[in-house]
Structure formats: C-alpha cells, structure tokens
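ASSEMBLY PREDICTION REQUEST
Request ID: AP-0331
Submitted by: J.K., bench scientist
Number of chains: two
Total residues: 624
Priority: normal
Notes: Please return the full assembly, not individual chains.
Input sequences:
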Amino acid sequence: MKTNLLRKFAAVATLTLTLAIPGFAAADTTLLNVSYDPTRELYQDFNSAFAKYWKGKTGDTVTVKQSHGGSGKQARSVIDGLEADVVTLALGYDVDAIAEKGLIKPGWQKELPHNSSPYTSTIVFLVRKGNPKKIKDWSDLVKPGVSVITPNPKTSGGARWNYLAAWAYALHQPGGNEAKAKEFVGKLFKNVPVLDSGARGSTNTFVQRGLGDVLLAWENEAFLAINELSPDKFEIVTPSESILAEPPVTVIDKVADKRGTRKVAEEYLKYLYTDDGQKIAAKHYYRPINPKIPSKLAKVKLYTIDKAFGGWQKAQKTHFADGGLFDQIYSPTK
Amino acid sequence: MANITTLHNKSTDQARRQLSEPFWVRWLLISSALLFLSLFLFVPLASVFSEALAKGVETYLAALQEADTWSAIKLTLLVAVISVPLNLFFGLAASWAIAKFEFRGKSLLITLIDLPFSVSPVISGLIYVLMFGLQGWIGPWLQDHDIKIIFAAPGIILATIFVTFPFVARELIPLMESQGCEEEEAALTLGASGLQTFFRVTFPNIKWGILYGVILCNARAMGEFGAVSVVSGHIRGMTNTVPLQVEILYNEYNYAAAFAVATLLALLALVTLVIKSWVEFRMKQQEIRS
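STATUS: Completed
Returned structure:
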C-alpha cells in the first residue's frame, strides 16, 4: 500500500519533470533582451522579424527571450547577474550603472549610431475624451483643480523624462530660469494625487481606475493605451514643446563574450537601424531616427537631455539623487 | 410522563433562550458576517471568473494554451514538485526531533522554523540575490563555473522552499507532542526497528496531519509571488511562474488572459479548501476513535 503510494508519487513527479523540461530546452541560439516596460509589443514584433532575417541570412535559428520591468529595476537585475545579451533600456543612466560594474565596456554609447538610440520618443499627454479640462500645454498642468498622473521619478525612467520635460518647458519660457522652473515643476507635482512606481502602473491607474485628468506618458504608451483599450474614451494632446527621449540599446559585453553570442547580439541591435527595424519601431509609435521612414507622429520642438541638462549623470545628480531638487519639491505629506 | 417531557422541553428552551443572545442580535451577527464574506471573498472570486470568461470560452481556453502561459504553468508545477517533498521531509524530521526528544537549543530551532512566516517574502527573495547575485557573496564564483541560481529555476525553487519551510513542521509539532512517545517506546521494547516504528506506529498517527501540511505547503508554493518575483528575472517563457504571468498579462492590457490564468490559482485555492476540510473531517474522526 505504502510502496504503491510512493510509486504513484514517483510517476507523477517524473511526468511533471518531463513536461517541464522542454520549456528550458534551447533552440540553436537564444538571446535575452532585457528591456523596460513599454517596449513589450515592439520587441515581440521585432524579435520575430529578426529571427526570420537571421534564418534567411545564416540558416541559424535564433530565439530572443524578453524580460520587461521598470528600467532601473531591470538594470539592477542585470547587475545582479541576470544574463542579458543585450539591454534596451529607457535611459542612458541605467546603462551607465551596468557599465560601472564592468559588465559593459566604457564608451558603449558610441558603438552604434545616434547615441546608440535606434528610435526616440517623447512625452505627451493622455486626456479623457473631449478634453474636459481643456489641457493644451504644460502650463495647463499647474492650474488648480487639474489632477496629473505620473509615476515616481525615483523609480521610473519614464517619470524622469516627464519631470525633465516639464522642467525644460519652464526653463525655455520667456523670462525662464532655474528658480522659476523649480517653482513650476513643484506646482505640477502638487497636482499629482498618486505616484506609481512604473509607467505601466500609472497607465493602469489612469485608464483602469479612472483617476486623474491627464496622464503624462511615453508617446508610444499613450497610443498603445488608446488603441489597445478604448479609442473612444481618451485622446492624445501633444504639447508645444517636449523632451527628446533617447532609449539606448547595447550589448552586455561580459555576457555575450561568455555565452559566445556577440556576433548575433550585435547584428540584432544593428537590425534595429535597418529600414525593416525602423518601420517596426514606427509602427509601434516610436519615432524612427531615419527621416525617410514615414512616421504618423506630430512634429514637436524637442529639447535634448545633453543640451538642456548637461547629460544624464548631471541631471540625475541635481534632480533625482537623495536630497536633490525632486526631494525638495515633492513632499508626499502635503 | 407526557407532562414531564413537555416540562423538560420547556425548561431547556427557556435555558437556551436565557443563555443565548436575543434573536435580533444573532441575526445581526450572522448577516453581517455573511455580508462581509460575500463582499471580500465571493464577489472578488466571482469577478475573477466573470472577467476571465468575459470574451467567451474560446478566448479563455486560448489564453491558457498560449506558449508563455503554458511554460509558466510547467515551471510552477516543477517548483511545487521539488519544494513540497523537500519540505515534507524536512518538516517530518524537524517535528520528530522536536516532539520526541529533549535537547539544548530546542526553542531556538522552533523559532528558526517560524522565521519564514515572520519575514516579508520580498526579503526572502533578496537574501538569495545578496548571496547568489553577481555582486553577492558567491555570485562571482558561480558565474565562473557557469552555475545559474538566481534568475533561473533553481533560485525560484530555493526561494519557494524558504517561504514554505514552516508549513509541514508547524502542523506536525503540536500533533506529535500531544501524542507523546509511549507508543513508540512500546514498539521499540517489543523489538521493532527504527523504520518499523516510524511506519507502523508514528506514521498512522500523523498521516492526516502530514496531508494537511502538504496541502497548505503546496498552495503556497504554487501561489507565492513576492519572493519569486525578486529572483525570477521575469524572462518570458522561462522564469515566470503562474502568479508572475498573471501580473505580466495584466500589465499588457490583456485582461481576459490575465484573469483566465488567475482562475487557475483560484481553482487551486478552491481545491485546496475542499481537500483541507475533508482532511480536517478525517482528523476529527481519528481523534474520536482513539
């Protein structure tokens, strides 16, 4: 009786194991692309296009696995040993953090064209249908009674772009200076009822939970929210000026060399710059860097992080470090 | 005679009325308990199933057959198949030692067994990152020898084992303590070997307790989110368990699929509840018999 039970248990265990193992069995080559939240759909599309291209070119099968999450959190996982062959993160600062630990060679941002950013994006507003609060530009966000949804700049890459876009706008207004920008952004964050930790969390807060009048979002995220969820409930407002977000891509040298995947990893990233890659990026509402690829997106005056803030390292230090400008502006216990 | 019975009935009725609360208090208590239960348990449970089936049975079944979801189910089963027997073995050994023997540091051991209950699951995951992560104690060595622990199945299994550590032991210790060692001593004096004593004397006394512990352990092993989330790395189709897959699908605006996968966990909970009540029933019966 007892042995019978044991035998049955062993049989079930073996069966489950055999079921489970094919999930781990690899194809010819696998790459792991560790990315940030809003690129899920883009890379699902791009990975299958690349696999096809690679098969046609070399006859090899390549499977690209994806991992998504907040940009900073994903960088942290790679630092802790998540074996990413390539990273495609929200901002250069997070890639710098990986490079600091020696996993990427210094000077990575010059390896690929256009600061290693094959596509760009910007920050736009998502408002409720009919734009009941008449939100047209950044200056409308600081008005009393307007509720703004944005994630926390401390944890979310997208939120840092939101914050810096608002700052850059205020800075470039007639008579604008640092003190006025600080006051402007401070007023804006007084209108934020809840800070989620990531961009997707904020989108869900705005769309699913119905909180807030306006969501500050990645342009592609805003279009996705409209198309995937409810085209008749929201509209996109593109402000007069915004920031040029350059999400960088790079090979993790240590991992690629160890796994012997350097060549295919490099080709994978280069394929982002081809016409096919650029078209896929445009299709998912990223701004292609190749001007010949048609884009559906409105033309906006965009400030770069380098010109307006002196680069990510500096912006991070002044604005988002502990005790930095964001901490001075935002006090949750208001 | 008839008079006596009616008298007797009357007096018990009176006694009952005097001993218990008035009708409206009882009614208020029961209905508020029911209202609370339905608000916080039945309504969410029903909404999980209704959301899952909102786009029809076909979408529901398709969502469960999707490759990444399927691999999440397989990984979850693998994790449970490894961690539950290990914790069963550990729980048996620990409760045996604690209930049947006296030794120094016994209370320390009990505290240690309880530790995973009091530690937040996120911390349970982070300790493994600190130990096995590339910046951790033995991470670089593991990397050199090409051994993957965190961001792979072994790390997820380790974290699950840690979190589900106390379930079997906690269930068995009081049971074994209450039974004492007399029966085992008798068996040993009659010439039974250690293993014989265990299988013929100890095991029959605790088998329902073991099953109870295993069910709870299994439910937690399959449903654990926090600790697993920290060590998973969230690689689609590789290191996502069912609870993590639910989160991913939800974040992808794929609500029907997210709730479809969530129904698996809800069903697991329901099955667990049914088996649990059955086991409790059997345990009571055993108690009455002995």
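REVIEWER COMMENTS: The first strand of chain A starts at residue 29 and ends at 36.
SIGN-OFF: pending second reviewer
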